Amino acid sequence: MAQITLQNLAHSYLPNPGKDADFALKQMDHVWQDGGAYALLGSSGCGKTTLLNIISGLLRPSQGRVLFGDRDVTDAPTAARNIAQVFQFPVVYDTMTVRDNLAFPLRNRGMDPTYIAARVQQIAQMIGMEDTLSRKAQGLTADAKQKISLGRGMVREDVNAILFDEPLTVIDPHMKWELRTQLKKLHRDFGHTMIYVTHDQTEALTFADKVVVMYDGRVVQMGTPEELFETPAHTFVGYFIGSPGMNLLEAKIDGSRAHLQGQSVALGASYAPLAGCTQIGIRPEYATLTRGDGLPVRIKRVEDVGRHRLIRAEVLGQPLSIVAPEGQEIGADLTHVAFAPDRINVYADDWRVQGGTA
């Protein structure tokens, strides 16, 4: 296992990059702790797979260094980094049995046959394939083949890190929950450094201790699921995390109040004068319909999603989502919306601004 350090790292697929937009991966400096479980989260094209390929050695960065512990591995090939990888699409040997596929990485390293048999049995139990160990991989479903690939990536206990590149894409929804639970257990039991690439926020938030959110080739926030939800460092994080995402409303910030078209909202902190495009962000869970307090609101529709109802509304010409608890009456007399002041985040040019004492 190893601490992974990214120093002054950046990458461009162009031969002579000259400006920020030329870089698929913008300059970054990060330390990922030994034994941590990390998720790289972002939409397609944000740079997460590029970053994973640099860490794995499949791609050399245009600038900067990658360190495993104190060892510079920037120019080291994948085979010399002592990592395990699981890719989006299954990579298995069709002519081998499931047992032999799982045992392959261990046999390649000359491990003791007794240990191999026990470890393969343990991994097979984890991925739910004990009954198919003697069956050849050929003819198995893509779902089953990906479970083999996942198991083979996790069978070694001596790796520096295990890298997962959207490994559950072809797995059925029920099995996704099972395997995510098993991955968390494996991490607790053996303490591997794990990096998991996904565009699915549920996968990221349930798997990782720390989620690394990427946007436009840049890491915009690294934090716990709670930090990403409560204090998004960038408007993209607020929008991308949560279902629905954070409400963002254009507003002028003046000390401890936000002004929206002649209306005023109390903030939980005080802010110095801000330049640029300023907005307030409020989670739908912290917005409440009222009979007169707060901002005037127009309800457009109500969606019943089980434990709560989702209200799609409009406030001062801007769209707003509100989560109403189960059982709350939603009548025509609820004409305003109030925000919990201490749950309001303030943004200037998309980045969160830290406030002072109100």
Describe this structure in words.
This protein has helices at residues 48-56, 98-108, 113-127, 142-154, 173-190, 201-207, 225-230, 235-240; strands at 4-11, 25-32, 37-41, 63-68, 71-72, 83-86, 161-165, 193-198, 210-215, 218-223, 247-250, 252-260, 263-271, 278-282, 287-290, 295-304, 308-315, 318-325, 336-339, 345-348, 351-352. It has 358 residues and is α+β, with helices and mostly antiparallel strands. The protein has two domains: 4-240, Rossmann fold; 247-352, no CATH class. Strands 6-7-8-3-9-10 form a six-stranded mixed beta sheet, sandwiched between helices. It has a five-stranded antiparallel beta sheet with strand order 15-19-16-17-18, with no helix packed on it. The protein has a four-stranded antiparallel beta sheet with strand order 2-1-4-5, covered by helices on one side. The relative contact order is 0.12. The mean pLDDT is 90. This is ABC transporter ATP-binding protein. Belongs to the ABC transporter superfamily. Pfam families: ABC_tran.
Q: Characterize the overall form.
A: globular
Strand portion: 25-35%
Structural class: alpha+beta
As laid out across the biggest beta sheet, the strand order is 6-7-8-3-9-10
The main sheet comes to: 6 strands, mixed
**Helix segment tally:** 8
Radius of gyration: 24 Å
**Level-1 CATH class name of the largest domain:** Alpha Beta
Question: What is the strand tally?
Answer: 21
- H/E element string? EEEHEEEHHHEHEHEEHHEEEEEEEEEEE
Helix content: 10-25%
The poorly predicted ranges are: none
Q: What would the CATH topology of the largest domain be?
A: Rossmann fold
Mean of residue pLDDT values? 90
**Going by CATH, what is the homologous superfamily of the largest domain?**
P-loop containing nucleotide triphosphate hydrolases
The figure for the number of domains is: 2
Give the end-to-end Cα distance, rounded to a whole number of Å: 45 Å
State the CATH architecture of the largest domain. 3-Layer(aba) Sandwich
